[in-house]
Amino acid sequence: MVGSTFGIIINSFGNKNSSLxxxxxxxxxxNFQNNAWTLTAGKNTLSFVYNPLEVENLSGAIxxxxxxxxxxxxxxxxxxxxxxxxxSEIYSVxxxxxxxxxxxxxxxxxxxxNIPTKDCTSNFIIIRESNASSIYQNNKCVFITGQKQDLxxxxxxxxxxxxxxQ
Length: 166
Description:
This protein is an alpha/beta fold. It contains four helices and twelve strands; from the N terminus they run H-E-E-E-E-H-E-E-H-E-E-E-E-E-E-H.
């Protein structure tokens, strides 16, 4: 008896959600597998670091209305970020729906000449570190800002909102 209890405790270490491997949120089923939360959307399996329940407490960071996925379908999507995790999350979730995901430089910033410069007339996601958490849209630009440790959570929150899950 003591051995089996010890085994359960040991197996729970390092497993992000050992007791929870499936949730349903607003009618969408998420499964935890291979250290990611997956959602099947049509023929696509989308992977997220967090599930919608884990980012709900950040929903106050959303300021104003955000465009839904249909505004991005079959169009180029530009992204500017120094946070590779957030950039990878955007790429992996949205690449099945957009024409392409491409790194770009936001027109208000100094840029490497090898990277195209874009403004808010293009679908553009700009992710930056900031003391305050915020997700807002200005024309076709979406700005995701927050402390470094929160950027991936804020990115998942944005994706859930854009996909109509939250």
